[in-house]
Amino acid sequence: MIAEIQKEILKLEQDNNIKIVYAVESGSRAWGFASTNSDWDVRFIYVHTYDWYLSVEEKKDNIEFILPNDIDLAGWELRKALLLFRKSNPPLLEWLRSPIVYKEELSTAGQLRDAAAEYFNPKSCLYHYFNMARRNFEAYFKEGEVRLKKYFYILRPLLACCWIERTGEMAPMEFDMLVKAEILDEQLMHEINVLLEIKKSGEELDRGQRIPIIDAFLENRFEHFERYLKDFNFKNEPGYDKLNSIFRGTLEEAWR
After folding, report:
1. 23-47 pLDDT, tens digit each
2. Hey, where are the domains in the chain?
3. Per-residue pLDDT tens for 43-80?
4. Is residue 131 a contact partner of residue 225, using CB atoms and an 8 Å limit?
5. Strand duo 62-66 + 40-47: pairing
6. Of 19, 42, 113, 165, which sits most exposed with the smallest number of CB within 10 A?
């Protein structure tokens, strides 16, 4: 499948006259809890030719395709990606840390990783993950019997909040790293790992009764971050000079 994805990346470049400077896996496969029928969520950053940028009209700055072979392709044009990077956009910061890289030929992603600490805004990322966890909880946990796999989609963003609060740094994508770092209760860790092993083994988690020890942890963390974020202040307004340099350098690398 990796070869198939790389083939589709090349086709995108040829069909759209672009260069894809960075392409990674961004979904459950990168998080570490994919099942056998999970989609391939490919995310990428691309750059147009010089002439595309030398015009006054606004143009489309993203590409999205869902292919029949369970490959979900979505990418951002480089200038859009850099503006989002300046705002400490969590999905983009995750892409830069993905453990599954399909293409990285230019220096762009490496330069962004080097600049990530300077542009990182913990407040932006904390709100992103907290709201993601809360939305998923409200959507999927209204009854006593739930879709058990949805625990991961609440635990992962909440544990990312815990990581950011503890370290002041962007959280890793990998779920098991978050669990090992942020879960101190052995029984709680055991219950999470039981679910994780079932899902990773290829079995699809069915509906089942809610798990009290995990529910108690979620409730505790929701209450904690509700209070924590009310008093959390952080200001970071980095400039554009470094991003302009990355943008111009990428154009030169891509098309020279």
Report:
1. 999 988 999 887 777 889 999 999 9
2. 2-119+237-255, 122-230
3. 999 999 999 999 999 999 999 989 888 899 999 999 99
4. no
5. unpaired
6. 113
Q: Which CATH number fits domain 2-119+237-255: 3.30.360.10, 2.40.37.20, 3.40.50.800, 3.30.460.10?
A: 3.30.460.10
Q: Among 62, 104, 58, which residue's Cα sits nearest to residue 84?
A: 62
Query: Hey, what long-range contacts does 132-136 have (CB within 8 A, 24 or more apart)?
Result: 132/157, 133/157, 133/158, 133/161, 133/218, 133/222, 134/222
H/E segment holding residue 74: strand 71-77
d(CA 101, CA 164): 24
Tokens of 15: 């069909």
pLDDT value at position 202?
A: 62
Its pTM stands at: 0.92
For 39, the token pair is 């989609």
Q: Contact 96/30 with Cβ under 8 angstroms?
A: no
Bridge partners (DSSP) of residue 42 are: 25, 73
Cα 148 to Cα 78, 143, 236: the distances in Å are 38, 12, 38
214 within 8 A of 155, measured Cβ to Cβ? yes
Contact assessment for residue 103 and residue 44, using Cβ atoms and an 8 Å cutoff: yes
Residues in a beta bridge with 24: 43, 101
